[in-house]
Amino acid sequence: MNRITLAIAKMETQIKERVALGMTTATRVKATGKQLDMSIMEHVKFQELKSLAVSNGKLTVEEGVTVFSLLGNTVSVFNRRSVAVKAVLTGLFQELLSTRIHNGETSCV
């Protein structure tokens, strides 16, 4: 397991617990998943940033392969993923974009 797969497993557990405790509903979880769908441009940019993160050591090769696999070869593959996968990868995408902006690279998407 790597940081990505561990974070997804933790998120899946949290979502199940929150539904079981009545803190949210399956309908809300599904709606959240739809809100986390990516556009084609976001998908392409995420693949690029993931590759850069692997090349500069921010992600391990194993983590990069995990992200690549979960993003899929088309945006529709990602958009069919579970809410847990989408939430974790969207958080990573935000982190990679923030790092890029912090480093003075303003052309993000």
Overview of the molecule:
There is one protein chain. Helix 1 (3-20) crosses helix 6 (83-102), helix 2 (26-35) packs parallel to helix 6 and helix 3 (40-55) packs antiparallel against helix 4 (61-71). The protein starts with a helix and ends in a 7-residue tail after the last helix. 22% of the residues are buried. Helices cover 73% and strands 0% of the residues. The chain has one domain (3-102). The chain has six helices and no strands. The protein is an all-alpha fold and 109 residues long.
- What is the quaternary state of this protein? single chain
Total beta strand runs: 0
Topology as a string of helices (H) and strands (E):
HHHHHH
Q: How many DSSP H or I helices? A: 6
Radius of gyration: 14 Å
Question: What distance lies between the first and last C-alpha atoms, to the nearest angstrom?
Answer: 30 Å
Largest sheet: none
Mean pLDDT: 93
Apparent shape: globular
Catalogue the unreliable spans.
none
Helix/strand/pairing category = mainly alpha
Strand content: under 5%
Give helix % range.
over 70%
Number of domain modules: 1
